[in-house]
């Protein structure tokens, strides 16, 4: 049934989908567990977005980081005369520690590389190299990482019209926050590139929270303190178990997992997601918000574009398949 292909017209454009492919109009929010019509009345005062894997596509950057760091480890092994077999073992343990799957050339779901702060990632990298027999100082590993500069500078947004998407919620009086494990400098660049700096009311980054990074509830508590809202008035949305766990531990009103990053549907549910969506584009249909106020600010075309957030983007297309064909 799922393999048959049909053609359908969807909002002025022609796309092909497997016949059972979900669309924004047909998506059944009640089919994705722990969600019922009652929840649909939940209207948050603040939406707390994760950045990497939720707002932006970080995978190419992480792939580049892993490849360059692996090359640095290889060079170091050659320099100090480590055998090829031992070097392969060291590299394999290094990949295991940060959560890099060489077979699929991607991050292991919710692994340190996609969910941790850079301090944590460098710490686990150095500890792993040391433990598998490479004599190396933490400082040298940190140097390799720092030499790579801002790896997220080229990240692309995961949905089209990200500014308009955030504006939609702001027009309904919802505060927009970002809680990321990435550094402030890199976050600043991403927000500028995506043209959303002025649309984000509050943000907190991995290098601003000390040891109390996600999945600790502290970053969310801090955002709530700044915004003057309680965690129960927040909707938290993210792609890894660090995001969902932070939301649950802080007592967030609603926790949403998205499949545009590294976490799987099962992992996000088992760590506290109330719902798992193909992408943040589906939040618009989740919340009891009318599009009418938005029409007053924009045109009908703007609203139509919002409905099409999920329609053409390759990432979202993949994420939809993911929802229908879970990894496990
Ligand atoms: O940069 C990272 O390692 C993770 O960042 P995120 O919290 O925005 O997913």
TrEMBL record:
Name its species. Stephanodiscus triporus
Name it: Phosphoglycolate phosphatase
Q: Which InterPro entries match?
A: HAD-like_hydrolase_sf, HAD-like_sf, HAD_sf
Task: Indicate the transmembrane segments per the record.
Answer: none
Which SUPFAM superfamilies does this chain map to?
HAD-like
Q: Which GO terms describe its molecular function?
A: catalytic activity
Record Pfam families: Hydrolase
């Amino acid at each position: 049934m799922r393999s048959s292909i049909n053609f359908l017209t969807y909002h002025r454009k022609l796309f092909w989908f497997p016949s059972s492919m979900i669309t924004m109009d047909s998506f059944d929010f009640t089919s994705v567990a722990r969600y019922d019509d009652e929840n649909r009345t939940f209207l948050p005062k603040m939406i707390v977005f994760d950045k990497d894997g939720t707002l932006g596509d970080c995978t190419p950057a992480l792939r580049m980081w892993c490849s360059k760091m692996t090359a640095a480890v290889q060079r170091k092994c050659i320099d100090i005369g480590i055998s090829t077999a031992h070097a392969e073992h060291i590299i394999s343990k290094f990949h295991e520690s940060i959560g890099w799957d060489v077979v699929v050339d991607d991050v292991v779901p919710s692994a340190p590389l996609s969910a941790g702060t850079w301090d944590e990632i460098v710490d686990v990298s150095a500890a792993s190299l040391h433990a598998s027999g490479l004599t190396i100082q933490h400082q040298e590993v940190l140097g390799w990482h720092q030499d790579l500069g801002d790896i997220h500078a080229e990240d692309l947004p995961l949905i089209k019209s990200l500014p308009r998407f955030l504006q939609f919620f702001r027009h309904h009086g919802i505060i927009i926050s970002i809680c990321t494990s990435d550094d402030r400098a890199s976050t600043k660049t991403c927000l500028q590139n995506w043209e959303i700096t002025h649309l984000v009311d509050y943000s907190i980054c991995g290098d601003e929270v000390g040891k109390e990074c996600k999945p600790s509830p502290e970053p969310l508590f801090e955002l709530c303190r700044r915004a003057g809202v309680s965690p129960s008035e927040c909707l938290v949305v993210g792609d890894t178990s660090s995001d969902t766990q932070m939301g649950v531990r802080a007592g967030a009103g609603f926790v949403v997992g998205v499949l545009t990053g590294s976490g799987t549907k099962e992992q996000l549910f088992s760590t506290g997601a109330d719902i798992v969506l193909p992408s943040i584009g589906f939040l618009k249909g989740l919340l009891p918000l009318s599009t009418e106020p938005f029409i007053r600010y924009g045109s009908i075309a703007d609203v139509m574009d919002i409905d099409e957030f999920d329609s053409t983007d390759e990432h979202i297309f993949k994420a939809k398949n993911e929802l229908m064909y879970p990894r496990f």
